[in-house]
Automatic annotation (TrEMBL):
Domain of life (superkingdom): Archaea
Record has Membrane as a keyword: yes
Pfam families reported for this sequence: DUF8044 (PF26161)
Species assigned in the record: Natronorubrum bangense JCM 10635
Protein name (record): Uncharacterized protein
Stretches that traverse the bilayer: 7-24, 30-50, 57-77
Record's keyword terms, sorted: Membrane, Transmembrane, Transmembrane helix
InterPro entries (UniProt xref): DUF8044 (IPR058357)
Amino acid sequence: MRFIHGQLAWMVAAVLVLSVLGSFSYELFFVLSLIGLLIVTELTAPFAVTPDWRRRLRWLILLGLVGFGVIVIRRILEILPPEVLPW
């Protein structure tokens, strides 16, 4: 439960900060949530025994990193001039 509370607190704080700054977007929220997931995962990691649900958490982290890669590639393609792109 400590993991769930930490992640929810991080995500609510991210929404509030992005809203106050007037820069809320789904991409920024996703990236901040992924950063929070990685931080909360490390801070709540047990020392001796790894529960089964923590092993399955690796797949969620992997999917998050793939999503992050997609966002980075999309942003890079937006920045590049059309002459550089082969299509």
